[in-house]
Amino acid sequence: MWHDLWIASALLLVLEGILPFLSPATLRKMARNLLELDDATLRIGGFVSMMAGLVLLYLVN
């Protein structure tokens, strides 16, 4: 189990590093846009992301 957790963490870091590596300007624009969003919108986005992850995890397993 711990081995799988480390693999998942490493994969997360790889995926999160793709955008800043390929297009740092786009990442800056996205960060500016995130600052302008209200809390409710960010929470909804976070919830949708978590649910999509859970569904994907269910489908994979």
Q: What is the oligomer described by this structure? A: single chain
SSE string, helices as H and strands as E: HHH
Can you count the helices?
3
Tell me about the largest β-sheet: none
Q: Measure the end-to-end span.
A: 14 Å
> Low-confidence stretches at least 5 residues in length (pLDDT < 50)?
none
Structural class: mainly alpha
Mass-distribution shape: flat
Strand content: under 5%
Mean pLDDT: 94
Give me the Rg, rounded: 15 Å
What's the helical proportion of residues?
over 70%
**Total E-strand runs:** 0
How is this structure best described in words?
The protein is flat. The chain has 61 residues and is an all-alpha fold. Helix content is 92%, strand content 0%. It starts with a helix and ends with a helix. It is built from three helices and no strands.
Secondary structure elements and pairings:
Layout: H1 2-22, H2 24-36, H3 39-60
Helix pairs in contact: 1-2
From the structure above, extract its key features.
61 residues, mainly alpha
Short structural summary:
Helices cover 92% and strands 0% of the residues. It has helices at 2-22, 24-36, 39-60.
